[in-house]
Write a structure and sequence with these properties.
Elements lengths: L2 H29 L21 E6 L4 E6 L3 E2 L8 E6 L3 E3 L2 E4 L4 E10 L9 E10 L5 E5 L1 E5 L4 H18 L5 H10 L7 E2 L4 E6 L3 E6 H8 L1
Antiparallel strand pairs: 1-13, 2-4, 2-12, 3-11, 4-7, 5-6, 7-8, 8-9, 8-10, 9-12
Helix pairs in contact: 2-3
Length: about 220
């Protein structure tokens, strides 16, 4: 074998070696792009799916403690006004929280009588409407309350009548009698007021289903 032949074979071997290295490098590069390889982030499904939730029944007459958020007065309120309350403690059924602490409850004013003359005290009444459940739905509430302001209507009228009788028995001229009696009529009763922070126990009206994550239910049940 001549030197020229040896040189030719050497060149051919080098070219073949170069091609092999290039093929191997391309194969490694392609494998690094496959899902699950090192440096590749895999996308996972969201564990919170509909299959992870279940319906929990909130029974009729379930108790809920609420607190009045703003003061209410018969002198300012009007029929149909909404009154806001806040739930003071979570309501749970079989370990699942169906009404969160701090949830908003709403009442509607059904009757208003302002305090007036002759010692007549004010009155205000409302009915609870609903409360926000843990899943954002509404649960109906069943509770009505009436508040009456301090009134002296009977006392004032009685005093007016007694004054009139006394005037007549003493023979005081009639023109002064109406003025004296009417003076009692300007006596006003007190408005019905409820201070912010007052707490009440109310009840759920009817059965209600609340959607709760079963994963959270299992954890709370442990």
């Amino acid at each position: 074998m001549t030197s020229k032949t040896k040189s030719t074979l050497l060149v051919i071997c080098l070219i073949a070696l170069f091609n092999c290295m290039r093929i191997q490098s391309a194969a490694i590069s392609d494998s690094s792009e496959l899902p699950g390889s090192e440096g590749q982030r895999l996308e996972t499904a969201d564990p919170a799916t509909d299959s992870d939730a279940m319906d929990v029944n909130v029974p009729d007459r379930t108790q809920v403690e609420i607190e009045l958020l703003s003061p209410v007065s018969s002198q300012l309120a009007m029929r149909g006004d909404l009154i806001d309350f806040e739930v003071m403690r979570p309501v749970k059924v079989n370990g699942a929280t169906v009404i969160e602490k701090g949830a908003l409850a709403t009442a509607r004013v059904t009757e208003v009588k302002k305090a007036g003359h002759w010692g007549r005290g004010g009155k205000i009444a409302w009915e609870l409407q609903r409360v926000v459940a843990a899943d954002g739905s509404y649960i109906l509430l069943d509770s009505a309350r009436k508040v009456t302001g301090h009134g002296t209507e009977r006392l004032v009228i009685g005093n007016a009548v007694a004054t009139g009788i006394a005037f007549m028995s003493l023979g005081i001229p009639n023109p002064l009698l109406p003025v004296t009696v009417l003076r009692h009529g300007f006596t006003r009763g007190d408005p019905a007021t409820v201070s912010a922070g007052e707490r009440f126990w109310v009840f759920v009206r009817g059965d209600h289903l609340v959607r709760v994550e079963s994963r959270r239910l299992r954890i709370k049940g442990m």
